[in-house]
Amino acid sequence: MAIERTFSMIKPDATRRNLTGAITKMLEEGGLRVVASKRVWMSRREAEGFYAVHKERPFFGELVESMSAGPTIVQVLEGENAISRNRELMGATNPAQAAEGTIRKVHALSIGENSVHGSDAAETAKEEIAYWFSETEIVG
């Protein structure tokens, strides 16, 4: 199995409910290691840039608003098959469809307030990590 890195975000709906530690614990207990982490409050411009891939989607404005509405934890996770492992630990985007014991099943409020984000592929992980972190901030 390959050791890889992925990007993870604990969204404002979860930080508002003080779930940072609980979610990080689930990630760590799931076999991932946090090698970089910081708390940021995204500006509208940062949120628009980070989610630019969704710019033409009808939910883009609401997404930017919610992501810039409060603090977010951005993280780099490392582990065996970290991208797929993180996605498995997060669960389905819709918490009603998420598997029991996943982060979204346990903590998400709705599809829009689904508590976490994770990269979906190696190239996406590389881009998302670089958006928030310099190489010197990643210590693993």
TrEMBL record:
As its record notes, the protein acts as a catalyst of: a 2'-deoxyribonucleoside 5'-diphosphate + ATP = a 2'-deoxyribonucleoside 5'-triphosphate + ADP; a ribonucleoside 5'-diphosphate + ATP = a ribonucleoside 5'-triphosphate + ADP
GO biological process terms on file: CTP biosynthetic process; GTP biosynthetic process; UTP biosynthetic process
Q: Where is the active site?
A: 117
Annotated keywords: ATP-binding, Cytoplasm, Kinase, Magnesium, Metal-binding, Nucleotide metabolism, Nucleotide-binding, Phosphoprotein, Transferase
Question: What molecular functions are annotated in GO for this chain?
Answer: ATP binding; metal ion binding; nucleoside diphosphate kinase activity
Q: Name one GO cellular component term.
A: cytoplasm
Record localization: Cytoplasm
SUPFAM superfamilies xref list:
Nucleoside diphosphate kinase, NDK (SSF54919)
CDD domains tied to this protein: NDPk_I
Could you tell me the superkingdom of the organism this chain comes from? Bacteria
Q: Where does ATP bind?
A: 11, 59, 87, 93, 104, 114
Query: What class does this enzyme belong to in the EC scheme?
Result: transferase
The cofactors named for this UniProt entry are: Mg(2+)
Taking the first listed entry, what is the main subcellular location of this protein, grouped into a coarse class? Answer: cytoplasm
Domain Nucleoside diphosphate kinase-like intervals: 3-140
Enzyme Commission number: 2.7.4.6
InterPro entries registered for this protein in UniProt: NDK-like_dom (IPR034907), NDK-like_dom_sf (IPR036850), Nucleoside_diP_kinase (IPR001564)
- Similarity comment text for this entry: Belongs to the NDK family.
Its subunit composition reads: Homotetramer.
The record's function comment reads: Major role in the synthesis of nucleoside triphosphates other than ATP. The ATP gamma phosphate is transferred to the NDP beta phosphate via a ping-pong mechanism, using a phosphorylated active-site intermediate.
Protein name listed in UniProt: Nucleoside diphosphate kinase
